[in-house]
Amino acid sequence: PAVRNCEEAIQYCSHIPGLPSKNLFLHDPKSNRFFLIVLPAYKRLDLKKLAKTVAASRLVFASPQKLEEILKLKPGAVSLFGLLNDPELTTELYIDLEVYNAETVSFHPNLNTKTLGLSKPMLEKFLKTIKHKTAIIKLPAL
């Protein structure tokens, strides 16, 4: 079935190998910057600390309309692969160090009824193909 959040993923996808990830599409309303945040599914992100880290005034979840407009995705299907739909390079990518260092990480392939496992070499290869501003950091947790 479609998996729209981490709770549903635990219920339906715990058998899939690799580090489960979640992807958040965030917005700084003041600067009109957009961010795709990729972190382990279990991790709770501290948005206030992240805003300071990325030099944003504040971070909120981007609207479904902006998600559709920029990444051509629906809520519940946000994915690292959505960056392929953003040729204007509107979105900045921040990947948690734990996700980057995982032997295998699992993502939705822009469709929340499927999950794709990506090995570290495959993730690195994907990151080389995109031109978006990208940072691999230890994302602040609550």
| Poorly predicted residue ranges | none
Biggest sheet: strands, sense, closure?
7 strands, mixed
- Cα distance spanning the termini: 30 Å
Structural class: alpha/beta
Share of helix, binned: 25-40%
Q: Supply Rg.
A: 14 Å
Strand percentage, roughly? Answer: 25-35%
H/E series, N to C? HEEHEHEHEEHE
Quote the average pLDDT.
90
Total helices: the number is: 5
Shape estimate: globular
Count all strands and give the number.
7
Helix and strand arrangement:
Elements: H1 6-13, E1 19-28, E2 33-40, H2 47-53, E3 60-61, H3 64-71, E4 91-96, H4 97-101, E5 104-107, E6 116-119, H5 120-129, E7 134-137
Parallel strand pairs: 1-5, 2-4, 4-7
Antiparallel strand pairs: 1-2, 1-3, 5-6
